[in-house]
Write a structure and sequence with these properties.
Radius of gyration: 21 Å
Low-confidence stretches: 225-234
Helix content: 25-40%
Distance between the termini: 51 Å
Number of strands: 9
Number of helices: 7
Mean pLDDT: 90
Structural class: alpha+beta
Length: 234
């Protein structure tokens, strides 16, 4: 068996993390200036190599934890990028993941440690290698999932206004949404819970704060699955 494997070339395997945040009505991306070759001084996604004894998922979680100081981050695999000359240093196959986090949860000191900063999606520069392609695919993947699964709440603080929620979806999809229709849909979602808290930063009257109720969402999904299964019984 060892002879079978030995005749094939060996490659490096890496993970690259497309880390999205949301602030002041716009999506942001966490990028860093490379402090090593190749591509010294250029803008890059944040990533690292897969260590022996760990899966690509485990490597991505480790990289995210090391870079952000956070342990519970929403993460999903985007796909593999393996063009022969994608990395001028060595032959590297990279598995890309996108992650969603609340910018306010990110320790600003970590930005300095990793020579990183949040950049608006509208101002994303040319990135090294195929990182721009990774970002584009991650954004499309996120759009597809956010349309039917409430992953976008990972970008918001625990308490948020409906205006903040609408501006988040507008930022994700890049187009304005009708306020009346949007709030009608939100009212139909049992897992978006009205609280007794008020946000008075934008006006004296203030705006009601809401929060995402994960337990209510899970119950809703179980009920939907039951109804589908029940309807299929002949």
């Amino acid at each position: 068996m060892s002879d079978f494997y030995s005749i094939y070339p060996k490659f490096h395997v890496a993970v690259d993390c497309i880390i999205f945040g949301f602030d002041k009505g716009e999506l942001h991306l966490l990028l860093q200036k490379r402090n090593f070759q190749p591509a010294l001084g250029e803008w890059s996604l944040m990533g690292g190599f897969v260590n022996a004894g760990e899966s690509t998922d485990e490597a991505a979680k480790r990289v995210l934890s090391d870079l952000t100081g956070l342990s519970k981050i929403y993460m999903e695999q985007v796909g593999a990028f393996g063009e022969v000359e994608r990395d001028p240093g060595e032959r590297v196959v990279s598995i890309a993941y996108y992650a969603l986090l609340n910018i306010r949860d990110y320790d600003s000191e970590q930005l300095q440690v990793h020579n990183a900063c949040w950049i608006k999606m509208s101002d994303i520069p040319d990135l090294i290698f195929d990182h721009n392609a990774m970002v584009a695919r991650a954004l499309e993947t996120m759009k597809g999932k956010a349309s039917h699964i409430p992953i976008s709440f990972n970008l918001l603080p625990e308490y948020f206004t409906l205006t903040q929620l609408q501006s988040l979806y507008e930022a994700i999809y890049g187009e304005p949404l009708d306020k009346r229709n949007f709030r009608k849909k939100v009212a139909e979602m049992d897992y978006i819970e009205k609280t007794d808290h008020m946000d008075k930063t934008s006006s004296k009257r203030g705006a009601i704060l809401y929060r995402f109720n994960d337990s209510a969402y899970r119950k809703t999904m179980k009920f939907r699955l039951f109804k589908v299964s029940d309807a299929s019984i002949v």
